[in-house]
Amino acid sequence: MNELISVAEAEALITRHMPSFGSERVELDVAAGRILREPIRAERDQPPFDRVMMDGIALRWSGSLPRSFAVCGVQLAGMVAQTLVDDGCCIEVTTGAMLPDGCNCIVPVEQTLREGDRYLLAEGYVPTSGQFIHARGSDCPIDALLLNAGIRIGAPEMAVLAANGVTDVEVAIVPSVAVVATGDELVDVGAALGEGQIRRSNDRALAAALRSRGFGRVALSQVADDLGATVSILGALLAAHQVLILSGGVSMGQRDHVPAALDALGVRCVFHRIAQRPGKPMWFGIGAQGQAVFALPGNPVSALVCAIRYVMPALLASMGAVAEPLEHVCLDEAVDTNANLTCFVPAHVQHDSSGRALAHPVPSRTSGDFSSLPRTHGFVQLPPGQNVAVAGTAAAFYRW
Question: Which domains does the chain have, with CATH numbers?
Answer without folding.
Answer: 7-21+174-318 (3.40.980.10), 24-45+139-172 (3.90.105.10), 51-134 (2.170.190.11), 327-399 (2.40.340.10)
